[in-house]
Amino acid sequence: MKKKSAALIYGNTPNYIDHLAPLCHYLNIPLLTNIEEIFDIIKKYYPKVNVQHIENRDINFYTVRNFDNIFACIPKNIFDIEFRLHQDLLNKEINIFWCPHGNSDKGKTILFFEGLKNEKNVLVYGNKMIDILKEKKVFHTIENPYAVGNYRLDYFQKFKKHFKKIIKNEIATKLSNKNINILYAPTWEDKENSSSFFKYIDVLLTKLPSHYNLIVKIHPNLITQNETKIEIMKLKCSKKNIMFLENFPLIYPLLDFIDVYIGDFSSIGYDFLSFDKAMYLLKPQNKNLFSELFDIGYVIDDDNIFETIEKSKLLNPALRSKSLIHKRKKLYDYTFQKNTDLEKLKNILNI
């Protein structure tokens, strides 16, 4: 009997959308969610993805009864917390394929990747993630690793016309087309204190020059942690050249649109390696953390953010050194494997 596969976003975790939706397109499997808002976002932004909203009271039994393989951004042991009873009652074991939701340098100083120990199926982007898993003494315990490369970039390029239209309607037309577009996309405040948000957001908002547009993409977990504080901050900010993005999961269309990226330990920094554009990285509150992106971007550790941007040569493509371009490509190739196992996955799943 042919085994059936699907992907699952269980609970209000919108940060998983941009990772699972494109994967579902390439594997030709449905994407299940019990959150109506997530269903609406995927229907609006992601073409050729079969997303299904299942009522919260039904989703556990529906998932276990109708599918054998589930792609999710949570490992098997976390999945079983919510689905163990339903698997036992139906006398059925769900096979989990863990999908990463980004490739950052977080998790090196705390127990994080150790959660994948003895996982049966793990998707990795490329050698960088494999080396982290080896460093954490986890990789040898994984039964089936699959290299999937940068399928999200491929998805963006495949539907570029669609995404360009979204960017134009929702972002470009609301900002001055004479300004340089900057994206600030910090990570959330985790146990490693890897976020730069509360250390630098006031400086970014108050000192922004008039010839820049600043797009602030706040991580969903940051909003959950500090919803009232962030809402008050947004209400106080009335500058027309500042935009706060909400309920907007698209990453590659946004990176394609902007001129400058400001980040920290967010995995978006590695996504940005796909573009030969200016990258600036703000040192987070925990200054002991290190990222391989520090060799690619310009690291800022004080409040003179815009002064540094103005003085640096990164804004002018003609002035960027060949060695920097070479480093960027080398790190990109290390992060995202070119020859992927997507077809192999399809064959295994009989898709």
Describe the overall structure.
The chain has 15 helices and 13 strands. It folds into two domains: 5-149 and 337-349, Rossmann fold; 164-335, CDP-glycerol glycerophosphotransferase, C-terminal domain (Rossmann fold). It has a seven-stranded parallel β-sheet with strand order 3-2-1-4-5-6-7. A six-stranded parallel β-sheet has the order 10-9-8-11-12-13. The protein is α/β, with parallel strands linked by helices.
Task: Reconstruct the topology from this structure.
Blueprint: E1 5-9, H1 17-27, E2 31-33, H2 36-45, E3 51-53, H3 59-66, E4 69-72, H4 76-89, E5 95-98, E6 121-124, H5 127-135, E7 144-147, H6 151-158, H7 160-170, E8 180-184, H8 197-206, E9 212-217, H9 220-225, H10 227-236, E10 242-245, H11 252-257, E11 260-263, H12 268-271, E12 278-282, E13 298-300, H13 305-311, H14 322-335, H15 342-349
Parallel strand pairs: 1-2, 1-4, 2-3, 4-5, 5-6, 6-7, 8-9, 8-11, 9-10, 11-12, 12-13
Helix pairs in contact: 3-4
Cα Rg? 21 Å
Instruction: Label the structural class.
Output: alpha/beta
The whole-number mean of residue pLDDT values reads 93
Number of strands: 13
Give the total of domains: 2
Identify the CATH architecture of the largest domain. Answer: 3-Layer(aba) Sandwich
- So what's the overall shape? globular
CATH level-four homologous superfamily name of the largest domain: CDP-glycerol glycerophosphotransferase, C-terminal domain
